[in-house]
Amino acid sequence: MNFSQIKILKKCFGFDPSKTTVKTEIIAGITTFLTMAYVLAVHPNILSDAGMDKGALFTTTALSAVLATMLMAFWAKLPFGVAPGMGLNAFFAYTVCLTMGYPWQFALAAVFIEGVIFIILTLTNLREMIVNAIPRTLKNAITVGIGLFIAFIGLHNAGIIVKNDATLVSLGSLTSGPALLGIIGIIISSILLVKQVRGALLLGIFITAIIGIPMGLTHFTGVFSTPPSIEPIFMQLDFSQIFTKDMIIVVFTFLFLDMFDTIGTFVGVATKVGMVDKNGRIPRIKQGFMADAIGTTAGALLGTSTVTTFVESASGVGEGGRSGLTAFVISICCLISLVFAPLFLSIPAAATSPVLILVGLMMITCFKDIDFEDYSEAIPAFICMLFMPLAYSISDGIVLGLISYVLINLLCGKVKKLSWTMVILSVIFVLKFFV
Asked: Do residues 335 and 37 lie in contact, with contact meaning Cβ atoms separated by under 8 Å?
């Protein structure tokens, strides 16, 4: 590449040739896309249970991901993928619509309001202030916790770990089906990593998917199709109950879950790749938060639940993605998926799960940076790491870690370690459990 091309990439995406290459960024973007592509299949299934059109949901899911990730690429210049969040969509469909009995139009209005509030919080720097208030110990713990969390997701998606009514979880059948393919994928990807093959994770996905063909797990149902219309769900927001108590509760819950899932992902992934400066701050995090907030607001108008930064972005970062060029590749892949949906959906979860498991390994290396000799630091860090996978929630892990950090240090007289932001957040979090 010549100097002018590098200059353009640097201006557009924050590309630094001393830290990465174009080839690496492309591989990283494709890898992240493949590990988060399951949302294009799973998300429509979940929201369709609330009565929304499944075909329209597929198109809206891809479009909202394209829009938000493009913002992440050009504005924030960060290597993160953005799409409708898992967990948040379950709350949308199964709690707001099916349990509380509200129509999906009501839920979309709540998501839109949440997005607007997020934009305001980001413009006032409150969101960035919250992130910067998190101690370095907890930032490292968040990274480790996310590593354990996404590894658990990978094990579950492959059927290696399954639900058990007696013991909560247990081993699945490892000699056949998705679990066997997942194990094969782990072995293949591990060998490629040990051999230091460039693009090991992406190559592992493709090889595993091909092996899944004779096993009857990879099914090719076609190459391309015309994207379904989004008309049934586009701009279908219902603001008639905007001032009701339930609307306030729903908006707050969306706000809470989205904010701390996003904060957890940003802090965890950024800490892992050294994007945190010497003061513990993450450069361009305000722009990243704004991309997330605008994505949520636009997503509600398009007809989908909360859009958030995906923890699976860690897989692309694990492949060396360091700039917005990675995010740009992710968004292009999402755009392409609109017409090649039958092809990419043929890749089974068991073929992408090994990537999540191995990236989990890469992320827990921050474990060594936690001071386990100081129990006022070690105990909150342990609580944070433990509860992310066990509670199946990044936000719950952060909340419990922060509360325990404040309580332990406050009661032990180590007040100087605490900021007013941390104390106020902890009080709010404690009240959340009782109100």
From this structure: no
